């Protein structure tokens, strides 16, 4: 069995950001030499997500607006979590909605996507160094 482990690092300028990481994941698949297998990508932080959807700017704005309605950042004192002195109570909740990880099949050496599927890293408490994990197994 072949396998590859790789970390992607981020340091977003804004608190929230949505980054298409499909090219990086495709490069990792090529690097792994796996033709048939599975590719896992997960956020390594509890205030960020990895998800799959369309690479469309309107949709990204819709996600951000929707998440901000569900769990607004302000006022920060509305969250019990922030009584610890943190201000990222909303980010924990946003991550829960958008998920921790994705798994994509690898077929004939390529990510076996459905139509328009792209892999995104979603940051909900950025402006510091954070990472996602890529793990590829197969043969
Ligand atoms: Zn926190």
Note down, in words, how this protein is organized.
The chain has one domain: YjbQ-like (Jelly Rolls), CATH 2.60.120. It contains 3 helices and 8 strands; from the N terminus they run E-E-H-E-E-H-H-E-E-E-E. It has helices at residues 22-32, 57-70, 89-98, and strands at 2-10, 17-20, 37-43, 48-53, 101-107, 110-111, 118-123, 130-138. Strands 1-8-3-5-6 form a 5-stranded antiparallel β-sheet, with helices on one face. The chain has a 3-stranded antiparallel β-sheet with strand order 2-7-4. A hairpin with a 2-residue loop joins strand 5 and strand 6 (110-111). Zinc ion (ZN) binds at residues 81, 86, 88, 92.
Task: Please tag this protein with its features.
single chain, 139 residues, alpha+beta, Jelly Rolls, five-stranded antiparallel sheet, three-stranded antiparallel sheet, 3 helices, binds zinc ion
């Amino acid at each position: 069995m072949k396998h590859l482990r790789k970390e992607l690092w981020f340091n977003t300028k804004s608190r929230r950001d949505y980054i298409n990481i499909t090219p990086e994941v495709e490069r990792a698949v090529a690097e792994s030499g796996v033709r048939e297998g599975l590719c896992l990508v997960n956020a390594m932080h509890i205030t960020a997500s990895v998800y799959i959807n369309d690479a469309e700017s309107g949709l990204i704005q819709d996600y951000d607006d929707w998440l901000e309605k569900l769990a607004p950042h302000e006022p920060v004192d509305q969250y019990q979590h922030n009584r610890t002195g943190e201000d990222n109570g909303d980010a924990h909740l946003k991550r829960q909605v958008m998920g921790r990880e994705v798994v994509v099949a690898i077929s004939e050496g390529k990510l076996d996507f459905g139509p328009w599927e792209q892999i995104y890293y979603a940051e909900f408490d950025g402006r510091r160094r954070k990472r996602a994990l890529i793990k590829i197994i197969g043969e």
